[in-house]
Amino acid sequence: MLTVKHLDIAVIGDEDLVSGLRLAGIGRYFMIKGNHDTGEDVRKALSELINEPDIGVVMILEDYVEYVNDLVAHVREGRKITPVIIEVPSKFGTKYKDVVGYYKTFIKAAIGFEVEI
Amino acid sequence: MPQQLIKVRPTKIELVKLKRRLKLAQRVQKIVKDRLSILTMEFLQTARETVEAKRKLVDAFSEAYKALSMATGYHGYIALEKELIATEAAPKVVAGSRNIAGVRIPSFELRGNGKPMRGYNLVDTSSWLDHAAQLAEKCLEATIEIAELQRSLELLGMEIKRTKRITNALEYMIIPGLQATIKYLNMKFEERDREEKGRLKRVKVLVARG
């Protein structure tokens, strides 16, 4: 059965990411300020977002993913289609310079051998 | 490794049943193998597209950050914050799903993006801000694109793992087990035939003597 849903986009990011995406019109955002307890803030924001049914895509800053690896893995292994967690680069550029390498580990985990892409 | 025999009563009916099960298992194995190869091809295709999309995403964001830093530099953080309050346009993702070899994978589309009026005050702002907003919308598009592809990749990957388990179970456990049991039953029946023949011979001798 084909069901079509209208879902929101949410952002968890630092000041620059959030301002940029607010310019593009996004209304759901969590701005993580300062460094005092980033991990705690990110965890709270993400766990709130993944429990909401009308969130389609969560954009999260790459640097924050290390604080919530378990939550991200949990969402990715789920059978539901949404929410999708997407890591976006920070203003200093991306952590994963080697895009192909990043996905190669993924391919190896799924089909058991490495494939040139 | 000796194959595990399936415990059945040694009757002809059971043999027929086992033969049927073997045939079914072989047919299922063929179908599941075909499915696995379709999934794998789809997976690799998606992986290629995802890599492309990721590159695009990174490029789009680096452009947008540059433009944004120009805009913030020109207006200042406080003025920018004031303009941002009014920009909310609530872009939505329209999420449907496609079906590839029995796996439901998402198909996303962005709606409500790229309106000509962005909500902020046109008198107080400059073209730097317009430029930044345009690039930010491009980022959003790229993100939605990669969201669809990456989720498909994840779902396909999980399905491939599951299908692989099924093919392995069929190939290394179920089918050999059935074959071994059928062979065992056949041997048992032959043995019984031989015993029967021997018994008949002895009876014949006894009858002839009597």
Inertia-based shape of chain B: rod-shaped
Strand order of the largest sheet of chain A: 2-1-3-4
CATH topology call of chain B = Helix Hairpins
Mean pLDDT of chain B: 86
Protein chain pair with the most extensive contact, residues per chain: A-B, 44 and 65 residues
Characteristics of this structure?
heterodimer, A: 117 residues, Rossmann fold, 38% helix, 21% strand, globular, B: 210 residues, mainly alpha, 3 helices, 2 strands, 74% helix, rod-shaped
Protein topology:
The complex is a heterodimer of chains A (117) and B (210).
Chain A (H helix, E strand, L loop, with lengths): L4 E9 L1 H9 L4 E4 L6 H13 L4 E7 L7 H9 L6 E5 L10 H13 L6
Parallel strand pairs in A: 1-2, 1-3, 3-4
Chain B lengths: L11 H64 L1 H8 L7 E9 L2 E9 L15 H83 L1
Antiparallel strand pairs in B: 1-2
Helix pairs in contact in B: 1-2, 1-3
Polypeptide structure, described:
The complex is a heterodimer of chains A (117) and B (210). Chain A is an alpha/beta fold and 117 residues long. Chain A has one domain: ATPase, V1 complex, subunit F (Rossmann fold), CATH 3.40.50. Helices cover 74% and strands 9% of the residues of chain B. Chain B has three helices and two strands, in the order H-H-E-E-H. In chain B, strands 1-2 form a two-stranded antiparallel ribbon. Chain B starts with 11 loop residues before the first helix and ends with a helix. The chains are: A alpha/beta (117), B mainly alpha (210).
